[in-house]
Write a structure and sequence with these properties.
The complex is a heterodimer of chains A (375) and B (622).
Chain A (H helix, E strand, L loop, with lengths): L10 E12 L5 E2 L6 E2 L4 E7 L3 E5 H5 L6 H4 L7 E2 L4 E4 L10 E3 L4 E6 L5 E6 L2 E6 L4 E7 L3 E12 L2 E3 L3 E7 L7 E2 L12 E3 L3 E2 L1 H10 L3 E7 L1 H8 L7 E2 L7 E8 L6 H9 L4 E5 L2 E2 L8 E6 L22 E4 L8 E6 L5 E2 L5 E2 L1 E6 L4 E5 L3 E3 L3
Chain B lengths: L10 E7 L3 E10 L2 E11 L9 H16 L22 E6 L5 E7 L5 H11 L2 E8 L6 H11 L3 E4 L9 H13 L12 E4 L6 H8 L4 E4 L13 H18 L3 H7 L5 E2 H16 L3 E6 L4 E7 L7 E7 L8 H8 L1 H5 L8 H13 L8 H25 L12 H6 L15 E5 L1 H4 L4 H12 L3 E8 L4 H10 L1 H12 E9 L9 E8 L5 E7 L3 E4 L11 E8 L13 E6 L4 E5 L11 H14 L5 H10 L1
Parallel strand pairs in B: 1-4, 4-10, 5-6, 5-7, 7-8, 8-9, 11-14, 14-15, 16-22
Antiparallel strand pairs in B: 1-2, 2-3, 11-12, 12-13, 15-16, 17-18, 17-20, 19-22, 20-21
Helix pairs in contact in B: 2-6, 3-4, 4-5, 8-16, 9-12, 12-15, 16-17
The chains are: A mainly beta (375), B alpha/beta (622).
Chain lengths: 375, 622
């Protein structure tokens, strides 16, 4: 297999970013092609069918299911209010009358002669999709949603928690090695996306929530703290729906790992600017990584001179990060790429590379255990 | 293969489109037998930016061409058929689990009866069962409707009621499905396929309720009477619909379907098929396991009281070695994982390492300690998946059993598990952690510790995971499928001899005498808590060597013929050999940490699991 290494996460100071903003069901698109939007602009809305409430009318009235149709006062398709009588039994000389009432306000959807059940459909639930980014509507998908495009700086994280939020960037840590604790966070962080260094502590997370910060971007997080924070052990990396009052984007991994200098410098250079971040992560088929987008001004119809580099694979001199023990998190450059399989300490045979770390030391690492970094 | 007879088939090409890799194998007929020639692989191309599964297939075939020099594709990238001397193939077949495989929801009236039969049918067809809705599953109707709506399965299997029984409940379920108005996972341009396999008397009413909102198909009741399941019609319909609806929606599959000589089958369905085929041919009881990155599948064929083989499959959706490794850890808990590890590791550090494997699933253990750790987690994943399998592979529940006085002493109950470790003949493992373990002894140890076989059990691993392809092949050419399975697919590890019973450390568990093929005789005693490895390898033909053997279990220990009763016969070896496991069943590790580490070290050294020097220094270091 040609790609025996993990392609690196993207970190770039200018790229064109397009996000499709699609409704879960068909509905109305409320913006037009070329419209300028901000993260909170509603771009499409629809109504989800309301909840269904089955009522066993046959049981309530004490009649056989086939008689339910005749007992119904309200017919299929009719509107009913909560508590309204929908069916009445025809009793002996009118002495005993049983009634079935609507449990919710809604429409009679179905009356079954076989089960004697009546299905009531509640009022539809409105759903809105917002733009998420500050940018321009570049495509309209009729009845479904739009594409929003912007120029922006872009940082892909490795793992995150929480959904889409936005706020000005506030860099808290002074270096990539710093640990972000509750001490560094104060009321000035309210509404901001905070940037840390190598780790955020459990205390730091809680303090950020209590002062009203909207997000944290940081190099690492201890799994033990994550478990305590979520209240459960995360079994599979599918996230984004957590409602913990903050969105977290981890750029490097679990444990104390310094944030890549390039990422840190980029975020620092954008301090005060608005960042749109999303913690949603999915590491199975159809990978979704958490992200930080910092929208920039610029004409999106113009192509910029900045072109994405073709991913040519690892070559000698390529900057890499080791992503497994024993050198986990260390950065270096590819020193050589020996072709034959080599035996590791674990006795596995694997394709390896020689890495030269910043301090000049060299080591042999399986290619599967490194990640390419963008230059 | 149009117009070709079974004898004309000399070259077979098969692919399996997995979620990350597409694997191609080439089988050829030479000197009176079918053998695997070569295997090629390429990344699967179902997702953006490629969105055409055939690109990955062509790349994998391209690798096969490069490695063999056989030209399989013509200038227009079409498969050349039939074969000639150095070109083409006579059969082309494929399986697929790309794009998340086949995801189903099943519904039945009683959770432990028709709903469970429906679940069995879906799992047997190779599906992932996302949820089981039953009239008595304790959820309120509106909760069930919300769930159906939310899940977006590829298809729904609805069952309920025996033929001629009450229709109310199953129609109620149909009404729930109708109210939910479920949408298929892959696009909204077609109606969701629903299969009805319940009470025949309810067909009309079910059809009335579902025909406008879903693509409804009706097949024979899968539980026509309480005492019998009839899963084949539902299973076959699932396969048809998988092809017609689900696969047809996935990018490139229409093209791929037009290339193959047999319908594309869901990968696990095909694995089940080969396991069933082999078990039936040899008339043996088999357990197969495929431990992947995200899920662990277990397949079993058991023959209680000499009956026809009963096949079962379970999928443990979140027990796997990469994407789900963290979930294995969460479910097994730290002490259960660490009990297999002969050193201590700080919990914070260990947790971070496991989570880092989860978020970067393609990394491999470079250090010995990481390998030992991963294999400890694998043992727990196997154990947990097998617990689930045992509770699912049962005799039919809800069936009244006539009992005699003798039965009352045996304590058999309705719904008792079919899994009988003592009568199990063969345990086959596959999946990266087993198939690619640096030493085969490690695979054997993971199987023994994870499954705890009893009595005499043959152990094997799938060398390069070609069971799926061989499963489909068995529908077209049984001879080729079984020959390749036995000679190239399976790596025979050997045999495990494990007496059932408990004793005290150092007391005899059994004595043994094994006549090796070179005339040498191995004999001695196994003490409680001891493991012993005796070499009995492979012959020149690559098949396991055989040896005459006799085992005398001590009083209180059983090897299948009752406590203290001798067994004798022929045993098969393998690349590992004969494992004499005197650790007793039920198996318990010493509770005292020091003794536990000593015992683990003793077993690991005897079984040659890890390099001795490195292992000892690792134990000292921690």
């Amino acid at each position: 297999m040609t790609h025996a290494y993990t392609p690196g996460l993207r970190v770039t100071n200018k790229t064109k970013i397009t996000k499709n903003r699609i409704l879960p069901l068909k509905g109305d698109v409320v913006v037009s092609l070329g419209d300028k939007v901000t993260p909170d602009t509603v771009v499409a809305r629809t109504e989800l069918p309301g909840p269904v409430e089955p009522i066993n009318v046959a049981n309530i009235l004490g009649v056989p299911p086939e008689d339910v149709f005749e007992a119904m006062i309200k017919k299929e398709g009719e509107q009913v209010e909560q508590g309204e009588i929908i069916a009445k039994s025809k009793s002996f000389f009118g002495l005993f009358t049983s009634v079935a009432k609507a449990k919710i306000t809604g429409t009679i959807e179905n009356i079954s002669r076989i089960t004697g059940q009546v299905l009531l459909r509640g009022a539809p639930m409105p759903v809105e999709v917002r733009a998420y980014l500050e940018g321009e509507v570049t495509e309209v998908f009729e009845n479904e949603g739009v594409a929003v495009t912007t120029w922006g700086a872009f940082v892909q994280g490795i793992f995150g928690i929480g959904g889409e939020v936005h706020g000005p960037i506030k860099v808290i840590s002074s270096s990539v090695n710093d640990i972000l604790t509750e001490k560094e966070i104060d009321d000035s962080c309210k509404g901001c996306v905070l940037v840390g260094g190598a780790l955020v502590t459990a205390g730091g997370l809680h303090k950020a929530i209590s002062v009203g910060a909207v997000g944290i971007v940081v190099g690492g997080l201890d799994d033990k703290d994550l478990r305590d924070f979520l209240g459960y052990d995360l079994g599979v990396a599918i996230t984004g729906k957590e409602e913990k009052g903050i969105t977290l984007v981890v750029t490097e991994g679990f444990g104390e790992i310094m944030m890549a200098q390039k990422t840190f410098d980029l975020l620092k250079s954008k301090e005060g600017e608005m960042a749109c971040i999303n913690g949603a992560t999915q590491i199975r088929a159809g990978v979704i990584r958490p992200e930080v987008v910092i929208p920039l001004k610029g004409d999106i119809s113009k192509e910029d001179t900045i072109q994405l580099q073709e991913n040519v694979g690892l070559t000698i001199g390529s900057p890499i990060r080791v992503i497994r023990e024993p050198y986990f998190g260390k950065l270096g450059k590819v020193a050589s790429l020996p072709a034959p399989l080599q035996k590791l300490e674990s006795e596995s045979y694997a394709r390896v590379l020689e890495v030269e770390f910043a301090d000049g030391k060299k080591a042999i690492i399986p290619r599967a255990n490194v990640e390419a970094l963008e230059e | 293969m149009k117009g070709l007879s079974q004898e004309d088939i000399k070259v077979i090409l098969a692919t399996d489109c997995g979620s990350t890799t597409t694997k191609a194998i080439l089988i050829e007929y030479h000197d009176g037998e079918y053998r695997l020639i070569v295997r090629g692989e390429a990344p699967t191309t179902v997702e953006a930016p490629f969105e055409d599964v055939t690109m990955g297939v062509l790349n994998a075939i391209g690798e096969v061409e490069e490695l063999t020099g056989r030209k399989i594709l013509d200038e227009e990238n079409k498969i050349i058929s039939p074969s000639k001397e150095k070109t083409g193939t006579d059969i082309y077949i494929s399986t697929s689990s790309a794009g998340g495989g086949l995801q189903m929801m099943v519904a039945g009236v009683v959770r432990s009866m028709t709903a469970e039969s429906a679940e069995r049918a879906a799992l047997g067809a190779g599906a992932i069962v996302m949820d089981v809705i039953a009239s008595n599953d304790k959820r309120l109707p509106h909760e069930q409707i919300e769930r159906i709506r939310h899940l977006r399965p590829d298809m729904i299997l609805l069952s309920g009621g025996i033929d001629g029984g009450t229709t109310t409940h199953v129609v109620e379920l149909a009404e729930l499905i109708s109210a939910a108005d479920p949408k298929p996972r892959l696009g909204s341009s077609y109606n969701l396929p629903v299969i009805y396999a319940g009470n025949v008397d309810a067909r009309e009413a079910v059809s009335e309720s579902l025909k406008d909102k879903t693509a409804l198909d009706i097949v024979d009741n899968l539980r026509p009477v309480l005492e019998r399941e009839n899963l084949i019609p539902a299973r076959e319909k699932i396969h048809d619909l998988f092809m017609e609806h689900v696969m047809a929606q996935a990018p490139g599959y229409s093209k791929l379907m037009s290339w193959t000589d047999a319908p594309i089958m869901p990968t696990p369905g095909a694995v089940g098929l080969i396991i069933k085929t082999i078990s039936d041919l040899e008339n043996i009881e088999t357990v197969g396991v495929d431990i992947g990155g995200a899920t662990t599948d277990i397949f079993s064929v058991f023959r209680p009281e000499g009956s026809e083989g009963i096949f079962n499959r379970t999928v443990s959706a979140n027990l796997g070695m990469s994407y789900s490794i963290s979930n294995v850890f969460a479910e097994a808990t730290l002490p259960n994982v660490m009990r297999w590890v002969p050193f201590n590791m700080d919990e914070r550090n260990l947790r971070n390492r496991i989570k880092n494997k989860m978020i970067r699933p393609t990394t491999i253990p470079q250090m010995l300690e990481e390998l030992i750790m991963e294999q400890a987690i694998a043992k727990e994943a196997l154990r947990l998946a097998f617990v689930q399998h045992k509770s699912f592979a049962t005799v039919l529940k809800g069936v009244q059993q006539q009992r005699t006085i003798a039965d009352a002493f045996e304590q058999t109950t309705s719904g008792a598990t079919l899994v009988n470790m003592m009568s199990l003949d063969m345990l086959v493992g596959s999946g990266g952690v087993l198939s690619h373990a640096p030493r085969r002894q490690q695979a054997a140890m993971m199987l023994v510790d994870g499954f705890l076989p009893e009595g005499v059990t043959r152990l094997a691993v799938d060398s390069i995971f070609m069971m799926p392809q061989l499963g489909v092949l068995s529908t077209l050419h049984k001879k080729a499928a079984t020959e390749v399975f036995n000679k190239d697919c399976l790596i025979h590890l050997g045999v495990c001899i494990a007496p059932v019973g408990e004793g005290k450390e150092g007391r005899e568990v059994m004595s043994y005498k094994i006549e090796l093929p070179d005339g040498k005789i191995e004999e001695g005693s196994i003490m409680f808590g001891q493991m012993k490895l005796i070499k009995l390898g492979l012959g020149k033909d690559g098949l396991p060597l055989k040896a005459k053997a006799e085992f005398n279990p001590a009083r209180g220990f059983n090897l299948g013929r009752g406590k203290g009763n001798r067994i004798e016969g022929t045993i098969s070896g393998g690349v590992v050999g004969v494992i004499l496991d005197g650790r007793g069943r039920p198996f318990n590790l010493p509770t005292d940490a020091k003794t536990r580490v000593e015992k683990l070290k003793e077993w690991m050294l005897e079984m040659e699991n890890y390099p001795a020097k490195e292992l000892e220094s690792l134990i000292k270091q921690y």
